[in-house]
Design brief:
The chain has one domain. Helix content is 21%, strand content 36%. It has 2 helices and 7 strands; from the N terminus they run αββββββαβ. It has a 7-stranded antiparallel beta sheet with strand order 6-5-4-3-2-1-7. A hairpin with a 4-residue loop joins strand 5 and strand 6. The N and C termini lie far apart (45 Å).
Amino acid sequence: MQGTLYKRLFERLTDLIPNLTAPREGTSFYAPPRVEGDIASYCTVSKVQGSVCEVEIAQDTLVNGREQPAPWMVFRVDSAAGVAELLAMEDQWRYEVVYAEDDTPNPRRSQMNLFAVNNLTAMLNLGGAFRPVDAVEPINA
């Protein structure tokens, strides 16, 4: 897991998510839409064990004409090693995991991680960044 791809994933995640190298379980973040019609993204630190945490990222989706958050990507982030790996993802066609219950890697593991790093890079290049939920101003403030 020491390959460049996993280091790039770690770099993109730490660029997008504040204080990811010192995560607190249950911390939530929000990246608001930048223009009308754009999607919002959400992020939660769902588990922390030492220097390793799991991060879940979701985006708004339209269900019957209503925006609803939906699972998108789950990452394992190892701050001590400076690497991250995609564990699961969902797109409009399927939900897919990187490892089976017996820890057998998905044959598409590298492709899935490359997809993730490309999506995070696009989000970063488009000016997206997560903010702690308590730092987000109410819409009608």
